[in-house]
Amino acid sequence: MDTSPVTPHRMDPAGGCPHADNERLLARGAVATVVMPGAVEGAAVLGHEALKEFLAHPDVAKGAQHFTALREGNIAAGWPLLTFATVQGMTTADGDDHRRLRSLVSKAFTVRRVEQLRPRIEELTSGLLDGLHAAAQEGGGVADLRRHFALPLPMGVIGELLGVDAEYLDRLHHLSNQVVATDIGPEQAVAANRELVAVLSAVAAARAENPGDDLTSALIAARDEEGDRLSQQELIGTLVLMIIAGHETTLNLITNAVRALCGHRDQLEAVRKGESSWADVVEETLRWDAPVSYFPFRYPVRDLTVDGTVIPRGTPVLAGYSAAGRDRAAHGPDADRFDITRAARPGAVRHLSLGHGAHYCLGAPLARMEATIALERLFTRFPDLDLAVSEAELTRHASFVGNSVRALPVRPGASRL
Which end of the chain has the lower number of beta carbons within 10 A, N or C? Predict the structure, then answer.
């Protein structure tokens, strides 16, 4: 690893806003040595170009068998990040296994298939805006936008895609939140993972008994009809990944975009005037305040030099998306400024917040569509919507994986139907 005497950066289990630490770390280099909860040593790739290279490097793997400390029995069963390493699915598979698993779900996320979901997403959005309005009326003009809008929209969509009954959705969100948390104790971590597997096993059993036109039923058919294509562990692992990735990222994206626009009213007005698009807002939010801050894990399969820093074979490496998004070397001296016109600049660099290479986010088209529809309909219905508290009063996620706030109190103002 880095042979300089620089003290490794201790990842804060309580999460918090990552940007100040990111700026300090980037000033030292594109790669940082880190210490994660449980005194587990690792690395984080922070610089845009270094991360882009690392994500697509042929000598970087995702399989847990490459995680030296785990293989040698030095990772506790209740380690809060263990699921990210050991869940059996696309995000922990390499080569042919990765292609096999990805092919089983990729058809549900093509641009064409996602576009077919537009009417249903618009319908869900309208209903949730009614609910947000009602919640604000009951709450003296204030409502939690995250609870009443930003969460139930992507959770409802992924639930319908997977064929998950509505009765399970709240519990699945709670358990997903615990899985991505980095500040919970070993007993909580183990219990949350066990319950998540149990709930999704019940979902799979229900779909096996009553198959439908949903992704879970299609995966079960692949398991039962072509056993070599999907094992039971991979079925449940895929559902775990789809539930977490299918709503947590979009939830944070919508939340962060609303916060950004409320803090930059001039840019909100520019979108309303047609000078920029809602898609521009989504892309700049992804760059400026990435919904995933540090994503676990990748492992060099040999000692690997990245931007002058040696990362030893088998080191667990975090992908520093929030840091890369504000890397001045890639995005210019004003990289820490929210600017929805940035993407239109000559030579503008595309962000990496949805990944890069073979593991690029499969749900990117869906996340972009959901966020674009949500923001357009939200600010059209409530043109005077603003935060009900200051940014400083918002409580951050208890995780250095997800990057957002736990609640977003807003004053929607008058409703325009």
Answer: C
